[in-house]
Design a protein that fits this description.
Elements: E1 5-9, H1 13-23, E2 29-33, H2 36-45, E3 50-54, H3 62-71, E4 80-84, H4 89-97, E5 102-105, H5 110-188, H6 194-224, E6 232-236, H7 237-251, E7 258-262, E8 269-273, H8 274-291, E9 297-304, E10 308-315, H9 322-326, H10 346-356, E11 360-365, E12 371-378, H11 381-388
């Protein structure tokens, strides 16, 4: 172990000799200075672990030496023990004010002096160890931060690649799909038998589903890459629901789901992007048609709060599985499963739609069975103003 270095500063040689004899019983590396200027020069050349500093010295006294040490970066943390025959309280207080750690009056007891020296050297060692540990922790934090930054950059690249892939696939699919849809429409106008008509109907249905997929994929890409600028305006809740139901019926003429829509007595206005919200509501109804069963029913109810409106969608199907609820808003996972199977897109897309508008969506199983989706939207200022009058 490296010896700890102590600097003794005193203008009287006899005092230095006495201190040196006391410290010689320990394995300290001791240096000497007989003036303040000499002490400061030594501190510039060497690193000390402790300084024993006399106060009454000609030229530069111990107080001034201590003040100068505490102002320099490389010496400010060296503990200073003042040695003096002055025992007045004012002198003691001044010693602490200029940065001294200890105050020992002459003549001093050798055992007391050694004990205090050992105490401050121990504190100095511990302080250095703390600094070393702190530096090590800072290095670790910087290393982990850099790793996280690199990981985040990688995730951003992967996310962008996924979005670009979705966009590319969607665009590439639209052209041949448009051709297939056009051909099926032309074939439907020709003389075909019942079997051929059945095949054609199936082809038309599959094509429509693929078109729907490409539309959702493009929407997800825009929402995920912040390329969608929502047009937030006051819109009637009833208008949103009736528009979405009308779109669903047009797109799904053979749907069997029974929809029970409980209109609000008030004309409630919410701040949303009308087109986006209509798409979201339509997705909820389509999921009910697909997964709630043969005799599916969907109850739609509006719940008005103080500054927000909730739309409750509750069906009579088997409800969500535990796995589905755990992953319900994750893209391309079983989390989108409305009941037991699903596309992996609808609920995740619905979450993106509500997020970009500052709303919320909650998904759960209803108390009496079936699945429940709740859309939360902020009331318009106009609505809040009229309510307060």
């Amino acid at each position: 172990m490296k010896s700890e270095k102590i600097l003794i500063v005193d203008d009287i040689s006899k005092n230095i000799q006495i201190l040196g004899n006391i410290l010689s019983h320990k394995t300290y590396d001791v240096a000497y200075a007989q003036s303040g200027i000499e002490a400061l020069k030594l501190c510039d050349k060497q690193a000390f672990d402790l300084i024993l500093l006399d106060i009454m010295m000609p030229g530069m006294d111990g107080y001034e030496v201590c003040e100068k040490l505490k102002k320099q970066k490389h010496t400010k943390d060296i503990p200073v023990i003042f040695l003096t025959a002055k025992a007045e309280m004012d002198s003691i207080i001044k010693g602490f004010e200029v940065g001294g750690q200890e105050y020992i009056t002459k003549p001093f007891n050798s055992s007391e002096l050694l004990a205090r020296v050992q105490t401050h050297l121990l504190l100095q060692r511990q302080r250095k160890e703390l600094i070393k540990m702190n530096d090590h922790l800072e290095d670790l934090v910087r290393e982990r931060t850099l790793q996280l930054e690199n990981a985040n950059k990688q995730l951003e690249k992967l996310d962008l690649a996924k979005s670009n892939f979705l966009s590319l696939i969607s665009h590439e699919m639209r052209t041949p799909l448009n051709g297939i849809i056009g051909l099926t429409q032309l074939l439907g106008q020709t003389n075909i038998d019942s079997n051929q008509k059945e095949y054609l109907n199936y082809l038309t249905e599959v094509s429509a589903r693929l078109v729907k997929f490409t539309e959702i994929a493009l929407l997800i890409t825009r929402l995920k890459t912040d390329k969608y600028d929502p047009d937030i305006l006051p819109v009637s809740v009833d208008h949103l629901i009736t528009t979405a139901l009308g779109k669903f019926k047009r797109d799904n003429p053979h749907a069997t789901v029974i929809i029970n829509y409980e209109k609000s007595e008030k004309k409630l206005l919410v701040m949303v992007d009308s087109e986006l919200t209509t798409i979201g509501i339509t997705m909820i109804v389509e999921n009910t048609e697909r997964f709630a069963g043969i005799e599916a029913t969907l109850d739609i109810k509006i719940i008005e709060g103080h500054d927000e409106v909730d739309i409750h969608f509750t069906d009579n199907g088997p409800g969500f599985t535990k796995q589905a609820l755990d992953q319900v808003f994750e893209l391309f996972s079983a989390g989108d499963i409305m009941h037991h199977e699903g596309s992996g897109l609808s609920m995740a897309t619905l979450k993106l739609i509500t997020d970009v508008q500052g709303g919320q969506v909650r998904v759960m199983n209803a108390k009496n069975g079936g699945a429940m989706v709740i859309l939360n939207m902020k009331k318009s200022k106009q609505e809040l103003l009229s309510a307060s009058l």
